[in-house]
């Protein structure tokens, strides 16, 4: 835990007229990494700087960087555009452009920062990141290939190279090895930890993914991805209060983040009100419904008919109607009376939960499809590149191909745990891109 003196240093680093450059910014990040409560000191210093009426261009650079670190990228961009125009301001203008998806602007500012004397290697690593984010992974790799010397052993270089290899869909073991090397160099590199967490998540290594998400989320700046995915992992474990904590951290830095705002509502709605009496009754009912019909004295005719119909437990009898039973060959009124008596002895009746039965899902008819269309619906769901939350719901529903997804209605999907309107719209958008729709739409 940091001392009060260290907290004061964060304010001093930002508010004083002394030296302020990459080394000082790294000190601020290290202080907040050690104790996230120090984020409050950063916020207070930024608020004080913002209220200065006669702020100098140099102090505007500090304010812009403080706003950037708080995740207020648009505000930071506007302040830095009116700052001193030096190498540091240009570099963080590039960082803001990257975060806001203004990739051409980001590249322009990185070039200006490098020309003004900002560390060339850091500028080129940032350029590689922008090129990858803009869809030019080969261009990113070219930039990285042209870097030589000590920079190749830094955590940031190893991470950028791993992320680029992963984006190119090439050698996955190589990407993982690069992430691991980055974490060895800097155990607090949020990007490398997040990359490893994602790969473990995609391969079903849930416990390892959770551990890595937690490590990535403990870093500063964390980034939205680790906190969102950690929140989802907590929700999967019914740890909804911890999930809300992750989403609150995002909203503290990015108050208008749409997914975090949606997810925190979902997590809050998922926290159950525990009714002990109701739970006790439900447990008793579940126990009764699981009792095998073979535990009761039945005529040979009734026993054989139930066996042919696949009826094993009392629960099965509560989910079928009297008409269904009578429609079975050799099942008559005498057998029906027997079944009524058995269920009545347990406080149940035939068809009590018949509404819970689902109609069998229709098979996607491939006969009228072209060869290309058949190939499309046979593709794995992974090809849709869904978010972690949506992807995990697909796993819970046992869906592995796009064709299997097309059998589902929107209501079917919304019944899945943690699958809300945001995820449904995401699935719809992905299918629309392929010219497809869910059943009934």
Description:
The chain is mainly α and 441 residues long. Among the domains are: 187-272, Tetratricopeptide repeat domain (Serine Threonine Protein Phosphatase 5, Tetratricopeptide repeat); 277-356, 5' to 3' exonuclease, C-terminal subdomain (DNA polymerase, domain 1, Orthogonal Bundle); 371-433, DNA polymerase, domain 1 (Orthogonal Bundle). Helix content is 64%, strand content 0%. The chain is built from 26 helices and no strands. The chain has helices at 4-15, 22-34, 39-50, 57-69, 73-80, 87-99, 103-115, 120-133, 137-145, 155-167, 172-185, 190-202, 206-217, 224-236, 240-253, 258-270, 276-289, 300-308, 314-318, 322-326, 333-344, 371-377, 388-396, 402-406, 410-414, 421-433. Helix 4 (57-69) packs parallel to helix 6 and helix 13 (206-217) crosses helix 14. The model is unreliable at 1-8 and 358-363 (pLDDT under 50).
């Amino acid at each position: 835990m940091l001392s009060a003196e260290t907290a004061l240093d964060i304010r001093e680093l930002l508010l004083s007229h002394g030296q302020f450059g990459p080394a000082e910014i790294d000190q601020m990040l290290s202080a907040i990494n050690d104790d996230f409560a120090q984020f409050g000191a950063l916020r207070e210093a930024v608020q004080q700087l913002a209220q200065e009426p006669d702020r100098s261009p140099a102090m505007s650079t500090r304010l812009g960087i403080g706003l950037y670190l708080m995740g207020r990228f648009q505000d930071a961009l506007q302040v830095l555009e009116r700052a001193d125009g030096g190498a540091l301001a240009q570099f963080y203008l590039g960082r803001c452009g990257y975060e806001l998806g203004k990739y051409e602007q980001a590249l322009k500012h990185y070039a200006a920062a490098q020309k003004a004397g900002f560390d060339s290697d850091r500028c080129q690593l940032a350029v590689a990141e922008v090129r990858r984010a803009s869809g030019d992974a080969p261009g990113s790799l070219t930039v990285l290939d042209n870097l030589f010397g000590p920079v190749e052993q830094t955590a940031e270089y190893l991470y950028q190279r791993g992320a680029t290899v992963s984006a190119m869909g090439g050698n996955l073991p190589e990407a993982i090895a690069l992430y691991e090397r980055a974490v060895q160099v800097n155990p607090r590199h949020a990007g490398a930890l997040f990359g490893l967490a994602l790969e473990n998540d995609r391969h079903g290594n849930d416990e390892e993914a959770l551990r890595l998400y937690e490590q990535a989320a403990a870093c500063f700046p964390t980034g939205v991805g680790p906190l969102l995915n950690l929140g989802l992992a907590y929700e999967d474990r019914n740890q909804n209060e911890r999930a809300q904590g992750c989403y609150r951290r995002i909203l503290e830095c990015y108050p208008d983040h749409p997914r975090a705002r949606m997810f925190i509502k979902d997590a809050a709605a998922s926290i159950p009100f525990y009714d002990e009496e109701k739970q006790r009754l439900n447990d008793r009912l579940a126990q009764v419904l699981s009792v095998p019909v073979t535990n009761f004295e039945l005529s040979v005719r009734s026993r054989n008919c139930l066996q042919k119909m696949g009826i094993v437990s009392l629960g099965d009898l509560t989910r079928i109607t009297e008409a269904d039973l009578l429609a079975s060959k050799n099942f008559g009124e005498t057998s029906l009376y027997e079944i009524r008596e058995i269920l009545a002895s347990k406080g149940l009746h035939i068809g009590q939960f018949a509404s819970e039965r689902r109609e069998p899902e229709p098979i996607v008819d491939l006969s009228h499809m072209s060869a290309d269309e058949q190939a499309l619906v046979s593709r794995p769901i992974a090809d849709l590149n869904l978010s972690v939350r949506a992807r995990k719901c697909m796993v819970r529903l046992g869906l592995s191909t796009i064709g299997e997804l097309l059998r589902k209605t929107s209501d079917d999907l919304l019944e899945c745990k943690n699958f809300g309107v945001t995820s449904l719209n995401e699935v719809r958008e992905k299918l629309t891109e392929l010219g497809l729709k869910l059943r009934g739409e």
